[in-house]
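Sequence design from tokenized structure. All designs in this work follow the same two-part layout: the structure record, then the generated sequence. An example of the structure record is given first.
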């Protein structure tokens, strides 16, 4: 089991921005596709975005398309999720996970972080 750590969550007003980071210790994220997921209370875990190992291929959920952008810096062993124009319905715990293919299907990922809370509220 690989250990991933998310950071960058917090409280933001509607229309604001946050950048989440996903890092790892003891192994290189560059060997994996990295997905971002979120789970709101009482709801199923939802795929948000995913980026390939080299960063050339991405997948973005329709619910966040045009507002969220995934990127990675393999030299820094970090994957980012830039979230703009945030809405109250974006409130959730956000997770990053390591996998093999570019997909937003949670079952395709084998190692998960503990999550970071994002709250969008005025």
């Amino acid at each position: 089991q690989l250990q991933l750590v998310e950071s960058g969550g917090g409280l933001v007003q509607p229309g604001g921005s946050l950048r989440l980071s996903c890092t790892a210790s003891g192994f290189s994220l560059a060997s994996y596709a990295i997905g971002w997921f979120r789970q709101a209370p009482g709801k199923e875990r939802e795929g948000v975005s995913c980026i390939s190992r080299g960063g050339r291929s991405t997948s973005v959920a329709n619910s966040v398309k045009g507002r969220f952008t995934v990127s990675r810096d393999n030299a820094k062993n970090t994957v980012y999720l830039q979230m703009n124009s945030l809405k109250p319905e974006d409130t959730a715990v956000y997770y990053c996970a390591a996998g093999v293919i570019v997909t937003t299907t949670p079952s395709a990922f084998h190692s998960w972080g503990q999550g970071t809370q994002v709250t969008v509220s005025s």
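The chain is about 0% helix and 50% strand. We note this feature because it recurs in several other targets discussed in the main text.
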